[in-house]
């Protein structure tokens, strides 16, 4: 079998750094790695990538909350859209993702879920960013905190509807963003916990006490912290206060300098700890595209100077930040080490999805999801399950 060898590579392992190493990829897996002095025999049939002028080789990044890129959205419902998004994500160093929906009429949501399941079964092959499942953002949310979610399609939490959708998806729904204060007797929350779906507080207007109650019942995740939730007040700490104070809650953050002040990242990391913070992009179809007007869930979005807002209200509507740009912002704003960066862009995500046995770090036997970072901090190569998905030079 043909091998791929990364040579002269500065390899970022989970808790150490190999300055001048090699990685051998066989098939879809990492076969071996070590110091260059111990490189196995390379044959003329093997592919070699020389990393001597690169800054790092890191594990592929995992985006658990992304709606689209390159002019396409997962709600478009076509294999072409899904393939274009997956390729665009690979360009930014993302090797795996959760396809994220937006609140839409039930029929459209069902159609999207069905098409995503078919894509996962038939087209989700090595050589492109891997769809790991679905993040259902809405429609079980609070209209008061709808943000860019279309209000006319919001419905109350409904166990029967979730069960139908989960069956339709082939059990691919991994996270549901919902408003727990609207979940009567926490029926949906209990069903999510019983079926190992991550219940995430988001687009919620819960009070501090309501938030604590939901957390005590099993909520363990918060969607794009600060955005789409009741903020802190000195007489009601709100969702944000509860999420920051409860150690068991994992938080998604969008480090683009737009969704919240960059200095708040310092508070988040200090209060939550790096192991509980997950970088997401919340990327929409305008990611990687010129400024202009774009669609999000049937609504017009204006994109200008890196900011995406609903044209009719000015509400933030996703982002165009890439995972690698987000990683670089962690370095610039917080002076995080490369090990701390990959904790928040790869390791935490793999662990949250119970996939750490095959993704999230560079280890023998794990998927060969690797990103080669150039001296300028940009992505040079992305390898997705053993196949080069992106080469900056081509």
Number of strands: 21
The share of residues in extended strands comes to 25-35%
Low-confidence stretches: none
N- to C-terminal separation? 25 Å
Based on CA inertia axes, which overall geometry fits? globular
State the name of the first-level CATH class of the largest domain. Answer: Alpha Beta
Structure class: alpha/beta
**Biggest sheet character:** 8 strands, parallel
Walk me through the structure:
This protein is 26% helix and 28% strand. It folds into 2 domains: 3-58 and 361-391, Roll (Urease, subunit C, domain 1), CATH 2.30.40.10; 62-352, TIM Barrel (Alpha-Beta Barrel). The longest helix has 17 residues, at 106-122. The chain is of the alpha/beta class. Helix 5 (208-217) crosses helix 6 (238-245) and helix 8 crosses helix 9.
Question: Could you outline the blueprint of secondary structure elements for this entry?
Answer:
Layout: E1 3-12, E2 17-26, E3 29-35, E4 47-50, E5 54-59, E6 61-66, E7 68-69, E8 72-73, H1 79-91, E9 94-100, H2 106-122, E10 130-137, H3 159-168, E11 173-178, H4 187-194, E12 198-201, H5 208-217, E13 221-222, H6 238-245, E14 250-253, H7 264-272, E15 277-279, E16 292-296, E17 299-304, E18 307-310, H8 323-334, H9 338-352, E19 370-374, E20 379-384, E21 387-391
Parallel strand pairs: 1-4, 6-9, 9-10, 10-11, 11-12, 12-13, 13-14, 14-15
Antiparallel strand pairs: 1-2, 2-3, 5-19, 7-8, 16-17, 17-18, 19-20, 20-21
């Amino acid at each position: 079998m043909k091998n791929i060898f990364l040579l002269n590579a500065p390899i970022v392992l989970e808790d150490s750094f190999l300055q001048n190493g090699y990685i051998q990829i066989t098939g879809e897996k990492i076969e071996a790695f070590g110091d260059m002095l111990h490189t196995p025999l390379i044959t003329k049939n093997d592919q070699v990538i020389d990393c001597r002028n690169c800054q790092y080789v890191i594990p592929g990044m995992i985006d658990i909350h992304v709606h689209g890129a390159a002019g396409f959205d997962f709600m478009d419902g076509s294999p072409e859209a899904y393939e274009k998004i997956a390729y665009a994500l690979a360009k930014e160093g993302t090797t795996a993702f959760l396809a994220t929906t937006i609140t839409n009429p039930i029929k459209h949501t069902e159609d999207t879920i069905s098409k995503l399941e078919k894509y996962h079964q038939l087209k989700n092959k090595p050589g492109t960013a891997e769809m790991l499942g679905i993040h259902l953002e809405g429609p079980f949310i609070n209209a008061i905190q709808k943000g860019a979610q279309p209000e006319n399609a919001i419905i109350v939490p409904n166990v029967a509807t979730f069960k139908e959708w989960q069956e339709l998806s082939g059990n691919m729904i991994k996270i549901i963003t919902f408003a727990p204060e609207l979940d009567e007797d926490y029926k949906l929350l209990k069903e999510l916990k019983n079926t190992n779906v991550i219940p995430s507080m988001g687009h919620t207007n819960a009070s501090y006490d309501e938030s604590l109650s939901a957390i005590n019942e099993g909520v363990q995740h918060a969607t794009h912290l600060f955005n789409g939730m009741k903020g802190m007040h000195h007489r009601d700490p709100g969702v944000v206060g509860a999420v920051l104070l409860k150690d068991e809650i994992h938080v998604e953050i969008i480090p683009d300098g737009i969704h919240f002040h960059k200095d708040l990242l310092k508070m988040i990391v200090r209060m939550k700890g790096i192991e509980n913070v997950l970088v997401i992009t919340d990327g929409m179809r305008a990611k990687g595209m010129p400024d202009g007007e774009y669609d999000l869930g049937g609504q017009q979005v204006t994109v200008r100077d890196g900011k995406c807002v609903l044209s009719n209200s000015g509400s933030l509507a996703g982002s165009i930040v890439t995972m690698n740009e987000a990683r670089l912002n962690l370095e610039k704003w917080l002076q995080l080490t490369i090990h701390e960066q990959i904790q928040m862009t790869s390791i935490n995500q793999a662990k949250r999805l119970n996939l750490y046995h095959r993704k999230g770090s560079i280890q023998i036997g794990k998927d060969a999801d690797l990103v080669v970072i150039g001296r300028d901090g940009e992505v040079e190569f992305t390898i997705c399950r053993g196949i080069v998905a992106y080469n900056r030079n081509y």
